[in-house]
Amino acid sequence: MRKPKIVVLGAGYGGLMTVTRLQKMLGQDEANIVLVNKNDYHYETTWLHEASAGTLHHDRVRYDIDSVINRSKVEFIRAEVQDIKTAEKKVILNSGEVEYDYLVFALGGESETFGIQGLKEYAFTISNVNAARQIREHIDYQFATYAMETEKKEERLSIVVGGAGFTGIEFLGELTNRVPELCREYDIDYSKVRIYCVEAAPMVLPGFDPELVKYAVSQLEKKGVEFKIGTAIKEATPEGIKVAKGEEELQEIKAGTVIWAAGVRGSSIIEKAEIENMRARVKVNPDLRAPGHDNIFVIGDSSLIINEEINRPYPPTAQIAMQQGEVCARNVVKLLKGQADDLEAFKPDIKGTVCSLGDDDAIGVAFGKKMTGTKASFMKKMIDNRALLMIGGPSLVMKKGKFKFL
Ligand code: FAD
Ligand code: NAD
Question: Is the pTM of this model over 0.90?
Answer without folding.
Answer: yes
